[in-house]
Amino acid sequence: MNTHRIVLLGGGYGGMYFMRTLLARLPDHVEVTLIDRLPKSPLKTEFYSITAGTTSLKDVTMPFPTHPKLTCIFDEVLAIDQEQKIVACREQGDVTYDTLVVALGCVDRFHGIPGAETFANSLQSLKRAQMTGHAILTLDAYRSVVLIGAGLTGIELAAELRESRPDLNVTIVDRNDKVLKGFSPKLQDYVESWLTDHDVTILHGIQTDRIEAGHIVHQHGEISFDQLVWTAGIQASPLVRTLRCSYDSIGRAVVNEWQQLPDDPDVFVIGDSAASVHPPSAQLAEFHGEYAAQTILALLQNEQPKQREYQNKGQLGSLGKEMGFGQVKGVDLSGKIPRLLKSGVLWSYKKHVEKATVLTKE
Fold first, then answer.
1. Which of 190, 205, 230 is the last residue of a domain?
2. How far is CA 62 from the centre of its chain?
3. DSSP characters for 103-150?
4. Within a 10 A sphere around the Cβ of 251, how many other Cβ atoms?
5. pTM value?
6. Are residues 186 and 199 both part of a single domain?
7. Which of 98, 181, 295, 339 has its CA 20 to 30 A from that of 211?
8. Mean pLDDT calculated for residue range 17-39
9. What is the DSSP letter of 38?
10. Which residues contact 191 (CB under 8 A, 6 or more apart)?
């Protein structure tokens, strides 16, 4: 039987669950290649703690699996040729595939605001999170850090900075009238109260017109800063938007019920790269990765894949190392319990993935 080549682009949450599921039942005629810039899998939901300096690098990365039929290429993907079934890499050159799985994640979405990409720091990659952390943590005392966006990442970073750099003036700027859009009013009020009590300034209703060196220009005036961090939205990786398919409003590929491109079923798209009615999350990416692997395994064995529906288990956030908030099965939680739960979820993920880092064919 001819060798079937599966190429996976991206080793984040979705990619790790894809490999864990696929490699455990890999048919003899299948070979898998992972292409990722980094030699370890990043825990992106914890990047805020790297930026705040409260967590070490080893705590936010995981080793990739090892398997006789898994090849890891640490390189940058330059292009995807669906006609020739080739992935072009900067150093490695061309990598051919029979089945392609795109798990390239997301980048910042600047909403067309002039100067945003030039002057704002980012948390959308491990390298950028580290660079942003260096820029903030080396500031002199009493300097100002402004975060644009009061979503989960902005809130967690602001709270964590209160622990690592209590001397800094931290401000969150947001266009909405409440923090944490999508959470319940009860949790929104709890988090805003916690931030206010811990000397984080929150400015609501700010429509940023443009960003210039050292200040934000908005409809009512200007806001000065020493360092600016963008946490106000994401969009799909630019490479995803080169695929031959339809896209949603933030550039994610529209897929069918099996996570395939409708007009190119040899290409699967998962995680933040795939359009979904559900908001982007690590939990959704993990589901996509496992589901795509199960679908591919069935197709390789000429079986009918089993369709599954995503079930959201809830969402948790941290307010420093002691307090937190979240919604679990429709129940609002605040205080120490959700913080402990979030730590437990991270511990469980690490242990779950660690069990799959060394896989051998029986």
1. 230
2. 15
3. ---EEE--TT-TTHHHH-B--SSHHHHHHHHHHHHTSPTT-EEEEE--
4. 18
5. 0.94
6. yes
7. 181
8. 96
9. S
10. 155, 179, 180, 183, 317, 319, 325
Read off the tokens for 168. 């800094």
Comparing CA positions, the residue from 166, 118, 174 lying closest to residue 146 is 174
Residue 84: closest CA among 334, 266, 209, 352: 266
Separation between Cα atoms, residue 221 and residue 215, nearest integer Å: 10
- Rounded CA separation 243/253 (Å): 8
Domain boundary among 207, 230, 253: 230
95 backbone φψ class: left, alpha, beta (φ>0; ψ -120 to 50): beta
What is the mean pLDDT of the segment spanning 229-252? 96
| Cα(60)–Cα(44) distance, integer angstroms | 7
**In contact, 138 and 43? CB cutoff 8 Å:** no
Task: Read off the pLDDT of residues 105-121 as tens digits, 9 standing for 90 and up.
Answer: 999 999 999 999 999 99
Q: Which amino acid is at 350?
A: K
CA 353 to chain centre: 17
Q: Name the one residue in this structure whose structure tokens are 């390789």.
A: 300
Percentage of residues of the chain with pLDDT beyond 70: 98
Q: What is the CATH number of the domain that holds 153?
A: 3.50.50.60
pLDDT tens readout for residues 288-325? 999 999 999 999 999 999 999 999 999 999 999 999 99
Number of domains the chain contains? 2
How long, in residues, is the chain? 362
87 shares its domain with 194: no
The tokens for 180 are 């944490």
Tokens of 131: 């660079």
The C-alpha atoms of residue 292 and residue 10 are separated, in whole angstroms, by 14
* Identity of the amino acid at 288: H
Output the six-digit token pair for 130. 């580290």
